[in-house]
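Forwarding these from the shared drive since the link keeps breaking.
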Amino acid sequence: MKISSIFHGLTLFMAMIILNTAFVALVESNSVGAQAAADAVADANQDVNKSLWFGTGCLLPGLIFVPLPNWYSYLLTPVGLTGTYFYQPSPPLSRLVGKSPEYVAVYTQTYKSKRGNIQARWASAGCVTGSVILVWSVQGHLFLLLPQ
């Protein structure tokens, strides 16, 4: 009877250790992913040249004056702005040397997503600013053409 209760106690103890090890590995895996995501967001914020993307956005509304047949020149601005959403450069490989495969996967995915989002946001802000300037300047010239 004593051997049976000792056996059951040890079996229960072994089962708890095995299950606990899986949870510790899961928690450790989540902390690696969280650290990779935090590093990727910080690096993406640092790497984006915000003034370049704002300037690019400011120039996009001017593309309507490109002499193309029919109404094709009006498509250049939306196509250019859409391109800023889809252009997501990869992170520099030097930042990923010596990291675990899970860290590399999470870091790369988060970096591309965040960097593309920042670039698109700044290009959109520039496009709105450029459109306002374009409308304001065209409106000013129209008033000059009216008879006084």
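-- next protein --
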Amino acid sequence: MRNREIPPLKASEIEHDLHRFTSPNHHYEPPKN
């Protein structure tokens, strides 16, 4: 039972979200000055 673990699909979304916040100069995020 891996209820705590995020499903593959969700993980992908989460990763995208994390990348959005971690990448300072993303294509859909303004640069953090």
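The longest helix spans residues 8-22. The radius of gyration is 13 Å.

- D.
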